[in-house]
Amino acid sequence: MPGGEPVWLDNCEDMDLDYLFGFVEAYIFSPPDMKRPFLLYRTSKNTLIFPTGEFVGVYYSKELKYAKTIGYQVTPLCGCIIQKMDPCSPFKDFVTMLSIERIKAKKKGNESQAYVYKLLMNSLYKRFGINPQTSLIEICNYQRYLKLIQTYGFVDADKLNDSYYIVNYKTSTERNPDIEWKPPKIAAVQLAVEITACARIHMYPYISREDCHYIDINSILIIGRLLDEVISSTKLGKLKLEYASYDTIYVAAKNYCFFKEGHVDVIKHKGLTKELVTLDWY
Asked: Which EC numbers does the record give (predicted)?
């Protein structure tokens, strides 16, 4: 995992990508005939796409190295180079302990405790990538009120009485001066990026399969079968088989159903109308 003091490097065109570790801005060429592109790109309209052709973006070095192995052409331009942490997996023991305790709780039928362990595991990396922009609500006097409503992060305010006001504002916004920039002290974005990047690399061989018809944050739906050696409901890093031999209808993201004669229908529908959706609707 990345750690230590970052070093900025310009003019990396002649450097070997294999010797770079950190966050690299690179010129990328993706083969036009690639059916399932690997590298994502955020457009000017803030939309994530998986493009082919030529583009420039900032990526974690491990992603760029993997992209080269599947046909991408990558030319480093500049980047923030970071040291490798020792040990390289600082949370291995912690996450392993949570996984073991979750399995014990499920065996005992304690679903609430098992759910807490699941949340702790899932939210670990997210906590390091927390958004530095924070919403605050402050009750203050008139002088403080006048100051807050002129800040870049001001949202709204109300008068409580003749002496006090309640003000809603944001700190550490993009427009705040550097002197007012106060990101969370326990944030470490580079760790969150490492984990999500490695997860994308790990999942790509499954996502790029011809028989993969749907993907979610942590799941895939395929027509074929996976090797038994990659499936386990208890081992970390392996895939859990949830459903098999079901007919399926996909409508949109987080909106699909499974059904099989003699079995309970499985309906996945995110939104306020979830309780109204039935198999007949599909």
From this structure: 2.7.7.7
| Residue 79: Cβ within 10 Å count | 25
Angle between helices 189-207 and 111-128 (to 10 degrees): 110
3 state SS of 192? helix
- Are 110 and 129 within 8 A, CB to CB? no
Tally of CA atoms within 13 A in the half-sphere of 272 that contains its CB: 0
- In this structure, the chain runs to a length of 282
**Cis peptide preceding 205, ω within 30 of 0:** no
CB under 8 Å to 157, separation ≥6 — which residues?
Answer: 145, 148, 149, 165, 166, 167, 168
Q: Look up residue 53 and give its two tokens.
A: 């052709």
DSSP, collapsed to helix, strand or coil, labels residue 116 as: helix
Residues with Cβ < 8 Å from 12, sequence gap 6 or more? 20, 24, 76, 77, 78, 79
Tens-digit pLDDT profile for residues 226-262: 888 888 888 888 888 888 877 888 888 888 888 887 7
Which regions of the chain are under pLDDT 70? 85-88, 176
**For residues 226 and 82, what is the distance between their CA atoms, to the nearest angstrom?**
36
Phi, psi of 32 (to 5 degrees): -60, -25
Q: Annotate 34-56 with b (16+ C-beta within 10 A) or e (fewer).
A: beebbbebeeeeeeeeeebeeee
Q: What is the pLDDT of residues 177-187, one digit of tens each?
A: 777 777 777 77
pTM: 0.77
Q: Which residues pair with 188 in a beta bridge?
A: none
